[in-house]
Fold:
Amino acid sequence: MTVRTLPATKAFPVEEGVRLCGRCEGRLSRYNRENYCNRCLRHLYEAELARPFVPPHVWQLPDVQRSLIDRNFGRLCLLIRKHGELRQEDVAALTGLSQAFLSMLEAGVRRLTNIDKIVQLLDGLQAPMELTGPMLRSPAADEAAHQSARNRPTRSRPMATVHATRLSPEFYTPDHGAEPC
Structure:
């Protein structure tokens, strides 16, 4: 029995104004506000859930921070795997380093001394910039950190106003803003 595959071209001409799924190019319902059909959305959602990641709480742990400060990357990987409930294959997928190399790194047989590999490891694990410093991050990771900093919510009131409201009423005049009398 032979299996036939459909050609990649569209079987039917598409009318003007008809929206197509961004993944499978199937016709979207007029009620669908997304750019993907439900089947493709389900697939994308499941793929995102299956992708390994380092939980943010792991970077708060003192032993993880100490390993990073000491540049003991074998212990760092071991602690991240232990506290993040990850396998060596997961860390390998995140960092692009081989599972065999990670095994030797954790066992102390190999050391990570190449700066490019260190940057690759820390970028893949998405180590916070506050812990690594800018020298151990790639320019792409540096730009991503700046982008997330720009997207953070700002204070609703200027800092001077916040401090002025803590003062007693005789030192604060509402008609002049936050400046003292």
The chain has nine helices and no strands.
